[in-house]
Every structure is written in structure tokens, then in C-alpha cells.
Design brief:
Length: about 300
């Protein structure tokens, strides 16, 4: 049984303004480094879904992936339509295949552990004919991630008891104490099983994709979770760079031509092109890129998103 990968590389990355722009969004930026993760599946079995104006740039970043495998989404939408579209294309080319779904903006520290988790997830999906997600142990009370509450054992995995999306800080702490996992968004499944479930339960997608309506409509929507033993982070805002890049002894992450005073602590500073100097600040984000300058406290990602909407 062959394995394919669908990589979701859409989105605008407004929380990384001014460095991220519609023409060069965060999935094209070397935020966690300049080395893409490779080797999970052969390049000819990789599909990349991105925005209509980004196809050429994305294809240039991964020349080993056939140009015909880089697709433009018809319009910006959520994850579900993109995965159904990718699964449908894979099923037409390779009936009975398995697929994994990944996002282009993850930070993965341990390539080997990541591949091991994906392989385990594919094995569980194949053995039990279920949809599988990979969860990792939380390292903080993160309110911007989704959580998975594991249930009963299912082979080498656990059945999913429930999902919890973006909890409050207090509930996130409670979920951590009770053994909940972060939902990485790394999924694995058999293509026929996934398309059957999508056709049976996602009514809005069923109307849009009539050819995908076949499947086990009477079946129970089955999801399992595999625990990944790798460090994972969703690079969702400037604050994430202090987690995915190595800070200096004073807790700063600095990229570009920057001069720091000895009193700068716990900051993220990014200079693209121009030099600038920073002194006397703590817990700040300072960015100069694309003719704009951003200065804001850390921990204000949502406020930045609202600000960008006013520009």
C-alpha cells in the first residue's frame, strides 16, 4: 500500500506582519530555519496545496516535487475542503492509497521521531481502518492550540475521547494535568476511508464534491490518536520564534543586522535589509521589513491581527 503526503501551504500569516505579506506569507519565510523537512515520502507522491498566487514560489522552494503536484486552492478555505480535494486527487491516481496530512509552518526538532510517529499513525490507520491524528505532550498552558483527550487503548494508539479547541488558560492547565495532548494536525488515514467519512458527515462538502459522496454512510466516525515523541510547535506568531530558535543568554532571538544594548531581554527582533539598534526594552517584538516597522509587547498576537486589518 503506497503512502502519499498532502502539505497544506495556504494562509496569509498576518500575525507575522510586516515580514509576512500576501505576496510572501509566512510559509515561505525561514522563520524556524532554512531547511525544509524532507524524506517522509517520495517527492513524486507529495501534493502541495497553496494560494493561487504562490504556486511558483512554493514550487521553487521544493524543486524535487513535480511541478504538477503543486496546486492552487480555488479559494481560501479551512482544512477540510483542502484535505478532501487532496484525497480525491490521490484516490484517482492511486486507489487504495494511504495519506498523511501536514502543514508547511510547523517546527520539528527531531526528524527521526517525527517520521516514527507518522509511520505508527499509518500503521494504526491501516490495521484498524480509522482516521488517526498525532498528539504531543503539552509543554505549556497554550490557549491557541487544540487539545485531544485520549480514550481507551486501540492497538498501539488510543481512541479519541474528545477534542477541545483553544481553551482558556485555566482549562488548558486542567487538560494538561489530565493527560490531554496538543493536536498537531498530523493526520494519517486510508484515502477510501477518509473520503467515505467526508461524504457521510460533511454535508457542506458533499454538496460541493458530489463525486466524493460514496462511502460508509452508516459507519461510526472513528478517530484515534498516536502520541508523538518529538518536539512540535505551530509557528503562529512572533512569540513562537523564542521557542523554535535558540535565544541568546538574555532570552533574545535576533535575526538580521541588529545592535543590542546589554539591557535588552526576552525580545524578538528581526531586521530585513536595514540596520537598527535596540536598547532599554524587555519582552518586546521589534520588526523592520518591507518598508514597515512593528513595535509591540510579546503575547499580543491577536491585537496584531486586528491592527493589520486596519492597514
Amino acid at each position: 500500500m503506497s503512502v502519499w503526503a498532502a502539505i497544506l501551504a495556504g494562509g496569509s500569516g498576518t500575525r507575522f506582519w510586516p515580514l509576512s505579506t500576501p505576496e510572501r506569507p509566512k510559509q515561505l519565510l525561514p522563520l524556524a530555519g532554512d531547511r525544509p523537512l524532507r524524506g517522509l515520502v517520495p517527492p513524486e507522491r507529495i501534493l502541495i496545496l497553496t494560494g493561487p498566487f504562490l504556486v511558483d514560489q512554493v514550487a521553487a522552494l521544493v524543486p524535487e516535487v513535480p511541478r504538477a503536484n503543486v496546486f492552487a486552492e480555488p479559494r481560501a478555505a479551512s482544512t477540510a475542503p483542502a484535505l478532501v480535494w487532496a484525497a480525491h486527487r490521490i484516490g484517482k491516481a492511486d486507489p487504495g492509497a494511504q495519506m498523511v496530512s501536514l502543514h508547511a509552518d510547523w517546527a520539528i526538532e527531531d526528524d527521526h521521531a517525527f517520521r516514527a510517529a507518522a509511520t505508527q499513525a499509518l500503521g494504526v490507520a491501516r490495521e484498524h481502518d480509522v482516521l488517526v491524528t498525532v498528539g504531543v505532550k503539552p509543554t505549556r498552558n497554550e490557549t491557541g492550540y487544540g487539545y485531544i483527550v485520549p480514550g481507551k487503548p486501540l492497538g498501539s494508539a488510543r481512541a479519541v475521547r474528545r477534542f477541545v479547541e483553544k481553551p482558556t488558560a485555566g482549562r488548558a492547565a486542567l487538560l494538561r494535568r489530565r493527560g490531554a495532548l496538543w493536536n498537531t494536525g498530523l493526520f494519517a488515514w486510508g484515502v477510501p476511508r477518509f473520503l467515505g467519512e467526508a461524504g457521510a458527515y460533511a454535508q457542506e462538502l458533499k454538496r460541493a464534491w458530489p463525486a466524493l459522496a460514496a462511502g460508509d454512510a452508516a459507519g461510526v466516525f472513528a478517530v484515534a490518536v498516536v502520541v508523538g515523541a518529538f518536539a512540535w510547535d505551530d509557528i503562529g506568531s512572533w512569540d513562537a520564534l523564542r521557542r523554535v530558535r535558540r535565544p541568546d543568554p538574555r532570552g533574545n532571538v535576533v535575526i538580521g543586522n541588529v545592535t543590542l544594548g546589554d539591557d535588552v531581554e526576552d525580545c524578538v527582533i528581526w531586521a530585513e535589509g536595514e540596520h537598527f539598534a535596540v536598547t532599554g526594552v524587555k519582552a518586546m517584538v521589534v520588526v523592520r521589513a518591507n518598508g514597515h516597522t512593528l513595535v509591540m509587547p510579546t503575547g499580543q498576537a491577536e491585537r496584531l491581527k486586528l491592527l493589520v486589518q486596519r492597514l
